[in-house]
């Protein structure tokens, strides 16, 4: 049984109704998700874990792109997990997918999934909503096997967007408890240096979206 998670009730309130139309609206501004999924390229018969799997949209895409992989997803919102389970079943991916309610900052995958390591872990537009996001990244790298990769896509620093557009977007994100992590690349560099990993940074759409990749070498 998972311990009580304080952030979970907040996310349930935010997404209790939004989950029903979340994917239809987010496609217009959660940019970079599909390029990130295309870049996962896990080994044949490998494993993919999504932290903050939300509605299951990304796991379904990953499952279709990599048909021999096993899929795993965790989320802190039971509301989102309910939608994710429906999507997984509709996509006929139930036999190779496992979902669990968990706090990514204190996550032991051995309990719900019976495994400690994964070939690929990805986080899509979730570090900007997780208070302990740096700990989540460190824990994720700890659960990579040798040669495993952590892929993160999220809002960037919006550096090259017009000032008015940047100000309006930041205000809108604040309403939804979203905080872009402008030091994401610096944190990834520090984690990589401490774990013998290689890091890669990609800036997309004039800084609107960032992709950070940490590849574990040992």
UniProtKB/TrEMBL annotation:
CDD domains: AdoMet_MTases. SUPFAM superfamilies: S-adenosyl-L-methionine-dependent methyltransferases. The keyword Repressor does not apply. Residues 48-148 form the Methyltransferase domain. GO terms for biological process: methylation. Pfam families: Methyltransf_25. This is S-adenosylmethionine-diacylgycerolhomoserine-N-methyltransferase. It comes from Phyllobacterium myrsinacearum.
